[in-house]
Predict the structure of Aspartate aminotransferase family protein.
Amino acid sequence: EQTLSNKAELIELDKKHFLHPTSSIQAQQKTGAPLVFTEGNGIYLKDMEGDMYIDGMSSLWNVNIGHGRKELAEVAAEQMNKLAFSSTFSGFSHEPAIRLAKKLADLAPGNLNVSFFTSGGSEANDSAIKLVRHYWKVKGFPERKKVITRKRGYHGVSMGSTSATGIPEFHAMTTSLAPDFLYAPTPYIVEGEFTEEDLMKAAQEVRKMIESEGPETIAAFMAEPIQGAGGIIVPPEKYFEEIRNICDEYGVLFIADEVITGFGRTGKMFGLEHWDVVPDVMTIAKGISSGYVPLGAVMINDEIHRELIKYSKGTLFHGFTYSGHPVGCAVALKNIELIEEERLIENAAEMGQELEKGLKYLEEKHWSVGRVRNVGLLGAFELLADRDKNTRFDATQGVAGKVVQECLKRNLIVRSVTYEGTDIIAIAPPLSITKEEIKDIISIFDDAVSAVETTLK
Ligand code: PMP
């Protein structure tokens, strides 16, 4: 345990020297100072005071396997001792990257058989966009360069992926976005009553967009199977089937961003499997290594691979120093092995049902709780002024932020999503969670919502 002066020093140094990545939780936390964690175990994190927190967000939807898995640390050390040669540039290769690429080909749907490695999700999405544009170019269709993404979609913060992101708040730090991105509506209606049919219109808007822009100018449609940062937006049953049909009709490539939904989060290996739809390109990160090491990948199908190889003459002017880092790949392989051995995907599906029961209980008990939803262990509920009419609290009330704070006071870390005036609370615990631990989370939500409700109306 840290000494008192050491703790104060760490907090002061953090404030002075550490520019934190975007975070809504930091600003809302109970102490007003950075919360400094020292250890993790399962769904729990321990801070400098020795207090235990439930990590209801799996760090940032990434620690799928849970915290403190020594097996991953051991594999990392072993690999680092053997070979930490950090580049698969120029045809140099090594076994961990080769084995991981093969494993991913076995796991991925359809003929997504080839992986290009990156250090994370933003790089994977930037790479996906460049690879599909290059694919069209080498096939003789350089005009196919526009990428349709969706409002409330989140794809990262590098210039390409931030431009692909359909949340205006994430555009605030740049004066100009990358060209050739279009933002289609997403199947979510912020306020007022609506039907499934109204939600399905979002798919038809994609068709209209392709038609009005001209299909010969569209390279790809890119979407998260379930929007994460945008607020756990689960599409209607037929949405992705319709999207796949539209893409096929116009020859548009479909890129699935499985950065959050991959590796068991939703109770299946990949999120799109819930709708039996196969994308042409898939990006993955986070759960691939359960966040123990930075790693991501773009997976492309055999046909795209063939074309890229045929015309690139062995040179792809794209690659990162850490593309396929052996330590990252070795840890990812072990992580996937443990996810399979311990049946964590099956557990995510089962515990997802427990989470669903818990969320429904909250909805029954609390007048302000509505629109509860989850797919496996990716869940959410909303705070609504009038849930029958689907009306919002005034954004200045900061209701979701208050709930996050009340949870944090009770040592549960969750996240709010407040774009366009929503008050969404997201929950995504590690896949190793038990029934008892789900109950603990629901009981904290229960108390936190009660505490906030007394201040409302
Ligand atoms: N895509 C999605 C769906 C994400 O949720 C994220 C990260 N939250 C990213 C891409 C970007 O990944 P990274 O932060 O590893 O760059």
Observations:
- The chain has two domains: 4-65+343-453, 71-341.
- Residues 344-365 form the longest helix (22 residues).
- The mean pLDDT is 95.
